[in-house]
């Protein structure tokens, strides 16, 4: 919603700068001109999102939607052809990297938390938003020493139907070590630490990226490799490892909550090159 608000403001600013008296309702000609101007500095994906925001405003105002007009769609396709580029893929935090990152964590409360986060994020194939949204009561300790985890809501599951995942015993021990230090009164599974004390609120999703990059830096990786990691790297690396182990696509999609084979294929691109080695 923050992105949509920024997109609508960008459209309103463009209308003001070009002398158009009011942005809504927009005309087909206005949108085509807006798309052509945006194409000079914005990516195709950004322009598509801005059209989605403009479409939403028209629906809220109960106005006819001009974004579906053939001329507007042709303008969008012109941008895509003009700016054809492969999406940037985060470097996969595979099992080999995970072990190095865990070993590089300090023997501090932050190290306890980060070990649990990295290991859990990898095994659950979570997006960073899913990882920081986990609550303590989403975890159920099983008789075999593993955790059953409920991922309540995700980018592709806005209704909150959730999906169930399971951890290894090793990851369960790391999580238990963190919980023992953190205490039982904190609601979010992972929380900030201030002056060596846990704070009862969830981490921001952006912190996941910092934790991954700092772990890569502490593990002694090259700057180029550090830069290639992101908050999605655990999800990417785990999917690649599953493919290498011979797990079928349907099982990988179910484990990671993917709805599109095409999106999953992008995650697996680099792993496929090494399948027969």
Highlighted features:
single chain; 277 residues; three-stranded antiparallel β-sheet; two-stranded antiparallel sheet; 13 helices; 55% helix; 6% strand
Number of helices: 13
Radius of gyration: 22 Å
Strand content: 5-15%
Order of helices and strands: HHHHHHHEEEHEEHHHHH
Largest beta sheet: what is the strand line-up? 1-2-3
- The number of E-state strands comes to 5
The secondary-structure class comes to mainly alpha
Mean pLDDT: 85
The major sheet is characterized as: 3 strands, antiparallel
* Fraction of helical residues: 55-70%
Distance between the termini: 45 Å
- Low-pLDDT residue intervals, each spanning 5 or more residues: 272-277
What's the overall geometry? elongated
Question: How is this structure best described in words?
Answer:
By secondary structure, the chain is mainly alpha-helical. 55% of the residues lie in helices and 6% in strands. The protein is built from 13 helices and 5 strands. The strands form 2 sheets. A 3-stranded antiparallel beta sheet has the order 1-2-3. The termini are far apart. 31% of the residues are buried.
Give a summary of the structure in a few sentences.
With 277 residues, this protein is mostly helical.
List the helices and strands and how they pair.
Blueprint: H1 2-17, H2 28-38, H3 44-60, H4 70-82, H5 95-103, H6 109-124, H7 128-133, E1 139-141, E2 147-151, E3 163-166, H8 169-182, E4 193-194, E5 197-198, H9 206-218, H10 223-228, H11 233-244, H12 249-256, H13 261-272
Antiparallel strand pairs: 1-2, 2-3, 4-5
């Amino acid at each position: 919603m923050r992105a949509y608000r920024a997109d609508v403001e960008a459209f309103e600013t463009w209308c003001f700068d070009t002398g158009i008296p009011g942005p809504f309702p927009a005309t087909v000609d206005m949108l085509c001109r807006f798309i052509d101007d945006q194409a000079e500095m914005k990516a195709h994906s950004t322009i598509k999102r801005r059209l989605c925001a403009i479409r939403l405003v028209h629906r809220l105002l109960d106005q006819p939607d001009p974004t579906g007009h053939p001329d507007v769609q042709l303008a969008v396709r012109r941008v895509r052809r003009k700016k054809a580029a492969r999406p940037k893929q985060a470097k996969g935090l595979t099992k080999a990297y995970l072990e190095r990152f865990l070993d590089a964590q300090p023997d501090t409360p932050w190290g306890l938390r980060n070990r649990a986060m990295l290991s859990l994020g990898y095994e659950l194939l979570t997006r960073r938003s899913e990882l920081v949204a986990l609550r303590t009561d989403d975890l159920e300790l099983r008789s075999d020493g593993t955790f059953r985890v409920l991922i309540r809501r995700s980018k592709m599951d806005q209704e909150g139907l959730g999906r169930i995942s399971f951890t290894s015993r090793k990851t369960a021990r790391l999580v238990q070590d963190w919980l023992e230090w953190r205490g039982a009164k904190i609601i979010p599974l992972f929380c900030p630490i201030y002056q060596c004390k846990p704070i009862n609120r969830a981490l921001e999703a952006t912190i996941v990226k910092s934790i991954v990059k700092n772990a890569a830096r502490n593990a002694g990786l090259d700057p180029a490799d550090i830069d290639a990691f992101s908050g999605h790297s655990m999800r990417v690396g785990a999917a690649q490892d599953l493919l290498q182990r011979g797990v079928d696509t349907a099982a990988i999609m179910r484990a990671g909550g993917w709805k599109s084979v095409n999106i999953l294929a992008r995650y697996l691109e680099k792993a496929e090159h090494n399948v027969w080695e």
